[in-house]
Amino acid sequence: MSDLATTTVPWGTAMATAAATAPLPPAAPQPRASVIVADTTGPADIYGVHGTAGLTHWKALASGLDLAAGWEAVEWASVPPGGVSGEHRHTRTEEIYFVLRGSGEIVLDGVSHPVSEGWMVLTGVGTVHGLRNTGDTDLDWLVIEIRSPTPPERCTARAATAPARPPDTSRRKPW
């Protein structure tokens, strides 16, 4: 089989015939699926997330090559009452946390903030963040992680030069 297109050109000029018999261009890459369907059944049970001792249920709903543009991952997570997703920092991604169920506290750079169902929190690049379930039901949240165009060294420098803020100890619980 030939890789030449064979088309009859009604006007028969040499230019049209040459164009019609030219090698075909390489096939374009196939587009990614425009719809990804995932659910939260069958999550992994992980102990000690980000340096804590408790249990976290976690599932990646979409990640890596499933996603286009600057998306890193879409994940679902859940901790039982008293559970913790420990404090940590991302130097190349931002995360959006959307609380689906339950209530708790999110710590952003040492300051505690109450969160509950329907709340959204952005953890910017370089922000130290962690989440604790302070309620009496599971705390479930969706994480949307997005790569930042800011180089990691600038994020680290920003975090290192940010003014120190004392934590709000009136609302913070010891973890």
Give a description of the structure.
The protein has two helices and ten strands; from the N terminus they run αββββββββββα. It is mainly beta and 175 residues long. The chain has a domain at 44-161: Jelly Rolls. Strands 1-2-3-10-5-8 form a six-stranded antiparallel beta sheet, with no helix packed on it. A four-stranded antiparallel beta sheet has the order 4-9-6-7, with no helix packed on it. The termini are far apart. Residues 77-144 form the Cupin type-2 domain.
List the helices and strands and how they pair.
Blueprint: H1 14-20, E1 44-47, E2 55-63, E3 71-79, E4 84-89, E5 93-101, E6 103-108, E7 111-116, E8 120-123, E9 128-133, E10 139-147, H2 152-161
Antiparallel strand pairs: 1-2, 2-3, 3-10, 4-9, 5-8, 5-10, 6-7, 6-9
Strand order of the largest sheet: 1-2-3-10-5-8
Q: Look at the structure and give the CATH class of the domain at 44-161.
A: Mainly Beta
N to C succession of SSEs? HEEEEEEEEEEH
Estimated radius of gyration: 25 Å
Which CATH architecture of the domain at 44-161 would you pick?
A: Sandwich
The description of the largest β-sheet is:
6 strands, antiparallel
- Terminus-to-terminus distance: 69 Å
- What is the SS-derived class? mainly beta
Average pLDDT number: 76
Basic shape: globular
Per CATH, the superfamily of the domain at 44-161 is Jelly Rolls
- CATH topology name of the domain at 44-161, in short, is Jelly Rolls
